[in-house]
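Entry 14. Ran structure prediction on the chain below.
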Amino acid sequence: MPVLVGWAVIRDNVTDGSADNWWQAVVMFMIIFFWTPPHTWALAMKYKDDYARANVPMLPVVASAEETSRQIVIYSWLTVVVSLLLVPAASWIYLVVAVLSGAAFLVMATKLHQGIARGENVKPLKLFILSNNYLAALFLGLSFDAVLGWQTIGEMLF
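Output, structure tokens:
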């Protein structure tokens, strides 16, 4: 919700007659919405025993490690796909950042799932840390695009 509230605050003070592109704020909300589960569940996998002792029913406590990692992969894909919806409103900078950081996020989530499926000793905290970096890179790329004001991919195509 902070993304939507921030958008409303900024747009309420803009009187230049430009079109409101609320869809961009909704996509940013959806990025955070889909990013939160894999980010949180990776941390919860690391501290599963603590959550279990505290009777907190986090997914890794109530489901198998394989099912948890499967859900992490699904939500990671949703996050990356949704992040690409902003490409028409941004320049090539965001496109490159979204594709490269999204690929790294998906590779790490998939490696976690495959490692669990093979019965290996996995390190879910690596995915947790990477997910923070992924989100930061994504929004930094979007911020650089906004500051530079280069022609958007949507403008180039249409």
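The radius of gyration is 18 Å. Will compare against last week's run tomorrow.
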